[in-house]
Design a protein that fits this description.
Length: 187
């Protein structure tokens, strides 16, 4: 296990190659099939313009999406989390109705050698602070979904303060599996 300080910060537009590399590493993780809605094969086939546009959207200071990274002293990235705004009355990423203005956390990944260092909590601190700092729309809660078999992730979310809402959706691509919604209400 690595123990070192991390700089938690939003991605910058020119870092698309690092965004791509980290995402592809995440999609090769053994839990990727239950943690992410895309595959390594699909993502690795995307052109550079896809990654450039994805990074540009996540780097806009006043945008509706923000990706945070944990950067080590040598400039490498230990992990990442992305949060985006879902407006009340819209359909979400998983096609469930959005009842209140909220942030939705996705793309949680920490490289194996950095797990257990507290870096995921630092990434969540940044994403949740971003959500609460938004003035328009004022977000009422932060939510995320976790696969029913991803107990390690669910345990962290609960330690952080998220609670199961009781909302359960079928896993996209595998309706026999369930995605459980966890929420963190505005304090």
């Amino acid at each position: 296990m690595i123990t070192q300080p991390y700089v938690i910060r939003p991605v910058r537009t020119d870092e698309w190659e690092k965004v791509k590399e980290l995402r592809l590493a995440a999609l090769q993780d053994p839990v990727a099939p239950i943690a992410f809605l895309e595959t390594y094969e699909t993502s690795s086939a995307q052109p550079d313009t896809f990654w450039q546009e994805r990074t540009e959207r996540a780097a806009q200071e006043q945008g509706l999406i923000r990706q945070f990274v944990a950067e080590t002293a040598d400039g490498s990235w230990a992990g990442s989390v992305t949060a985006f705004v879902e407006a009340a009355g819209s359909a979400s990423l998983l096609d469930d109705p959005v009842e209140v203005d909220q942030a939705h956390i996705v793309g949680v990944f920490v490289r194996p050698e950095h797990r257990g260092t507290g870096v995921v909590a630092q990434l969540f601190d940044a994403a949740v602070a971003w959500a609460w700092a938004r003035e328009a729309p004022r977000l009422e809660r932060v939510r995320l979904f976790v696969h029913q078999e991803n107990r390690r992730a669910a345990a962290f979310y609960e330690r952080f303060g998220f609670r199961p809402s009781g909302s359960v959706l079928p896993m996209p691509g595998d309706p026999s599996a369930e995605e459980l919604e966890y929420v963190l209400p505005r304090p």
